[in-house]
Amino acid sequence: MAQLNIAELAKKLRESKARWVPRETPISLLDNEKFKRMLNPEPPKISAPSHAAEAAGPPTFAPSVDWRNHNGNHVTDIRNQFSCGSCVSFCTVAVVESMASIEKNQLLDLSEADQHFCSSHGASCGGWNDNDAFNQIKSRGVCSESSFPYDSAFPNNDPGYYWHHDPPPNPVCHVAGNRNDSVVKLTDIHNMGNNQAAIKNYLTSTGPVSCSIAVYDDFQSYGSGVYHHVSGSLEGYHCIEVIGYNEAGQYWICKNSWGTSWGMAGFINIAYGEIGIDQYDKIGITGVKLPAPPHGWYGFETLGGVLTSTPNAVSWSENRIDVVARGTDSSVYHKWWDGSHWNGWENLGGQIHGAPAICSWVTGRLDIFAVGLDHHLYHKWYQAGWSNWEDLGGLLSSEPACVSWGPNRIDIFARGMDCAMYHLWWNGVWHGWESLGGIITSAPAVSSWASGRLDCFARGTNNHLWHRWFSGGWSNWEDLGDNIFGNPGAVSWGPNRIDIFFPSQGNAMYHKWWNGSTWSGEENLGGILASGVGVSSWKVGRLDCFVEGMDSSMYHKWYQ
Amino acid sequence: MFSRHFFSVIKISFFIFVVSACAGTSSQQSETIKPKPMENTNTEPKKIKVLDTFTIELKSRGSLGLQLAFRTDKDGIVAVTRLPADSNSQERISPGDPLKVIFEIKALKPGTVNITFFETQPWNKDFQEIIKKEIELEVVE
C-alpha cells in the first residue's frame, strides 16, 4: 500500500552484493508492494554552466586523502540545511571554511544564509550552482554565522518551516550592521571539470572541492559503507563537499548538509562513477582573504633573538617592516617582515654602543646609524645591496635617532657630550652637527608627519618627556609632563599625527599620541620592558612596536 | 491524431470541473481536522472507470533529504506508477531545486480507495511525515 520500503531496499542491496547498508528506522513503512519507482536511465540535467576544465598535471596524487586527517582536521562541523534548497551555499561555504583552515589555520563558521539569501541568488530557497556561488564569495564575500545565523532567515526562526509550508513567505536577508567586519573572500576559483586525475591531484595537494550529484531514493537511506545507486527514483540534484577519496576502495569521501543523524555522522563514501559524481564539475578555491581584525592592540608576540639594545624599526611600504638591534657580540642584526613571514636575523657587522637607528626614504632603501666604540656616528645603507660602514664623525653620548621626510633627506639626532641634543642632516650632502640645546637624559626620538616637519622627544632632567619641533624653524622645548623611565620611540602614520612610546611605571610600555589638536593621556600597554621602544607604521592606523623583554628576546606589539 | 491518453485527460478535466464546483464546503471542514496537504490542488478526479487513467504532478525535494512516496489504504483498486523523467525535457534543474515528478493512477477494479502522497526522511525517526496530496477515489465499472 506504500512504495517506501527499507526492508525491500536492504534485500536488494544483499542481492546486488552492495557495499553499503541502509539505515533502518521505524518510519520505514511496511508494504508488500515492491519498489515501483522507475530508475531514471538518463543522465540528469543540471544547470551548472560548463567551463573549460583546468589542465591536469601528471598523476601525482596520494593513494588516499581525507581532509579530516590530512595535516590536521580541515573539515568543519556538519551543518543542516533543513527545509531549504540551499545545498549549494552549504557545499561552497564548507569548501571556503576548509580552505581557511588549510591556508590560514583559522576555524571559521560562515553564514550560509548570507551566501544564499543576500547574494545575487536572492532571498529564496531555490537551487543554484556552485560556480556562481563561488563567484559571489569572490566578489562580495560571505560573513560569519554570528552576523547572520541561518535560523534567523526563516519565519519563527525555524529552518524547518518549509517542511510543512510552501513558500511564500520567502526567507529574509537581514545581516548585522557589522557584516563587513567578518566578511571572508577568496581569490581564485579552480574548475577541474570531470578530469579525475586533476581532481585527485588537487585533493592531494590543495584541498576539498564542491561537486553536484543526483539524489535517488536509496541515497536518503544510506547508513554506512560505500554507496552506489541500487534502487529508487531520481529525487533531485544536490551539492556536497568532496573532502577526499580512496583509490583502494574506489570511492569519494564527501560531507553532506543534512545533519549528523544522516549517513556516517553526516558523511558518505560514494563509489567512483555513481550518481553523476564523476560527471559534474568539481570546483575548488584558493586565496582565502580573511577580514581585517577589529581595531585594537595585539601582542606581545615573541620574535626570538638575544638582544642587547632597543630594537628600532622602519617601514618602507605597506606590509614591510625592517628591525635592527645590537646582538651579544655588539654587531648590528637585522630582521624583517615581508608581508607573510619574518626573516633573519641577518648580521650586518659593526661594533657599536647602544641601539642602532633605522630610517628609509623610499621603497627598497634603508639607512642605519649607530654609535661606534669611538663615539663616532657610523652609517650603513641598503639599496640593492648593503654598503660598508661609513664614519660620519661626531662625538656622541647616546644612541642616535633618525627619520626621512622625503627622498634623499635624512635627519639624525643624538645627545652630545654636553648632554645637549645635536642634529645632523643629509639633503644630498651632509650638514651639521647643529646643537639644539637642552639637557637631555635619554637618547632622543624623532618623527616626521610631512616634508619640512620634525618632532623630537627626549627625557629631561626632571624625567619628564620633552618635545621640540621643526616647522620652518625650531620651537622651544615643551614639557609634556609624562614620567619616562627610558628612551622614547616616535612615529607618525600621517599628517598631524604622532605616536610616542616609552617605558614608564613598572617598566611597562606607555603610549601617548598627538591627534592634530591635543595630546592624549598615557595609555598603559603592559609588558615588562628591558629596553626603550622602537616603533614603525606602514599605513594610517597601523603601529608596530618592538621591545627587548626581560629574557633579552625581541617582542612585538601592534595596533591595527 | 490524438492519443487515447489525450482523450482521458479531456474527460478527467471535465470531471474535475464538475466535482470541484460542488466540493468546497467539505474541503474547508477537513482543514480544521488535519493539516492541509501542501500540494492539494483538487484538480484530480473523484470518480473514474475501470482501466481509465489520470496523472498528477508533484514536486520532489531530494536535495533536502526527502523521499516522495505514496500509500493506498486498499490494495488492488488502483495502480500508482511513478513515470520516468522526460529525457527529452529541456528544463534545466539546479542543485537544490524541486524536481517535477508525475504519477500515473490507473483504475483496476471497482471500489473506493484513499491515496496519500507524502514526503519523509527515511533515516530520521523523528521526522514528521509531510502530506503532499490526498486523493479519495471511487472506481466504477
Main sheet record of chain A: 9 strands, mixed
Give unreliable regions of chain A as ranges.
25-44, 47-51
So what's the overall shape of chain A?
elongated
What's the CATH architecture of the largest domain in chain A?
Answer: Alpha-Beta Complex
**CATH architectural type of chain B:** Sandwich
User: Number of helix segments of chain A?
Assistant: 6
Kindly provide the radius of gyration of chain B, computed on alpha-carbon positions and rounded to a whole number of angstroms.
16 Å
Helix content of chain B: 10-25%
Descriptive key words:
heterodimer; A: 560 residues; mainly beta; Cathepsin B, Chain A; Neuraminidase; 2 domains; nine-stranded mixed beta sheet; four-stranded antiparallel beta sheet; 6 helices; 10% helix; B: 141 residues; alpha+beta; Immunoglobulin-like; four-stranded mixed beta sheet; three-stranded antiparallel beta sheet; 7 strands; 19% helix; globular
Brief overview:
The complex is a heterodimer of chains A (560) and B (141). Chain A is mainly β.
